Amino acid sequence: MKTITISDEDFEKVEQVLKSTKKETEHKKTVIYKRDGTVLYESDKETVKEAVEEAVGNEVNLSYANLSDADLSGADLSCADLSNANLSYANLSYANLSYANLSGANLYYADLSHADLSYANLSYAKTQYCKVNFSSSEKKQAEQFIKGLDK
């Protein structure tokens, strides 16, 4: 190990830089944007998944949210309003989307494998190239999904 000697003045400068960097990282927010680029929701949570779950828990309307490429695997999004949201390429595997409103949502290439879609509204959702499996109790959602393949 080596020892470096610096002046008190330089030490104070280094300390100030470290403190300001720490403050910046402490105050970073996870932001959920709308499709038009405006801010929809801000959270102190570290991940988009946590921020989205928090928003859903607070009954925030997430319609028109831009969640493209988001990792929402295993997220509890039950009863969420995600109508017209951009969920293209999102990982929604094992997510709870029961009673969620996904009408008009862009689900191109989204991974919905093993997601709970019971009672979810998928009307007019764009579902091309989705990865999905339906249980026998999700017949209505499967029919809406199939209709979305033409959108």
Describe the structure in your own words:
By secondary structure, the protein is α+β, with helices and mostly antiparallel strands. It has a domain at 61-148: Pectate Lyase C-like. Helix content is 26%, strand content 9%. It is built from three helices and four strands, in the order αββαββα. The chain has helices spanning 8-26, 48-57, 139-148; strands at residues 30-33, 39-43, 111-112, 131-132. It has a two-stranded antiparallel ribbon with strand order 1-2. It has a two-stranded parallel sheet with strand order 3-4. The model has no long low-confidence stretch (mean pLDDT 89).
Give me the CATH superfamily of the domain at 61-148.
E3 ubiquitin-protein ligase SopA
Please, what is the oligomeric state? single chain
Helix/strand-derived class? Answer: alpha+beta
Calculate the terminal CA-CA distance, rounded to whole Å: 64 Å
Fraction of residues in helices? 25-40%
β-strand amount = 5-15%
Mean of all residue-level pLDDT scores: 89
Principal-axes shape call: elongated
Poorly predicted ranges (pLDDT <50, ≥5 residues)? Answer: none
SSE series: HEEHEEH
Radius of gyration: 21 Å
Name given to the CATH architecture of the domain at 61-148: 3 Solenoid
Q: Tell how many strands the DSSP assignment holds.
A: 4
Separate helix tally:
3
CATH class of the domain at 61-148: Mainly Beta
- Spatially, the strands of the biggest sheet line up as 1-2
Give me the CATH fold name of the domain at 61-148.
Pectate Lyase C-like
Can you summarize the main beta sheet?
2 strands, antiparallel
